[in-house]
Amino acid sequence: MNDVGVIQHTEGEFLGLLEDHFESRAIGFTYHRPFVPGGRLPLGPSEHATLLLLGGGPLGAVSGDLLPTLAPELRLIRAFLAEDRAVIGFGLGAVLLAIAAGGGAETTPLRFDVTEASRVAPHALAGFLPERYPLVRYGRDRAVLPPAAQVLATAADGTPALFQLGDKGFGFAGHPGIKRGMIEDVAMTTDPTPADLAQGLDALGAAQRAVADALGPIATGLAAVCGLMEGR
Questions:
Q1: 226: phi then psi, degrees, rounded to nearest 5
Q2: Is-contact 154 120, C-beta < 8 A?
Q3: Entry pTM
Q4: CA angle, corner 45, sides to 173 and 39, nearest 5?
Q5: Which of 39, 43, 148, 228 fits 47 for a cystine, CB–CB 3.0-4.6 Å?
Q6: Residues with Cβ < 8 Å from 183, sequence gap 6 or more?
Q7: 3-226, what's its fold?
Q8: What does DSSP assign to residue 109?
Q9: 117 - beta bridge partners?
Q10: What is the pLDDT of residues 101-124, one digit of tens each?
Q11: DSSP category for residue 38
């Protein structure tokens, strides 16, 4: 039975609305919090069949305060990719996936925006990716995709909103299951915070229902393509 190892980088960000979708499909998941005393990263593909990396708030891969576990996480991602295991990244997690796969990252300032992504590959997520869906981005730095990556959706500014690497690697520029309370918790427990925080929270509040509606087919597609329900 598949089990998802979820790496948290901040106190406030977790799977959010995606937890319900995993639980309803009996997909097991375990949180790893390497930033707390006694916390650790997953041991590797021997411990989890799938790796999911969350965002990092103000932490960066090439700018600002760098993610303290940057190097070991890149090694971990490469180990999963080498065994053709599923790797899913949200925000900073997507940046790490791109770097580990031979791409890179470019410096961008800390931001929080609520916009829309547009599907550019009809087959994306086994055809389940909505044609348009809310894109909520909180963080800094942007993924530079390796040549082998395929862009599945783009943001309003033309940058990749979702990319795929191989059969089971997926990088989301934002968290598809984000909740307003999660952003509030991240902002309260990390520093600095985006200058447009209040405006972003209002926009996310208005888009929360649309986020939830889009997550259904996204979760279905991820489960199908990544084999999250294999063995059931």
A1: -90, -5
A2: yes
A3: 0.97
A4: 75
A5: 43
A6: 12, 112, 136, 138, 200, 201, 204
A7: Rossmann fold (3.40.50)
A8: -
A9: 133, 155
A10: 999 999 999 999 999 999 999 999
A11: T
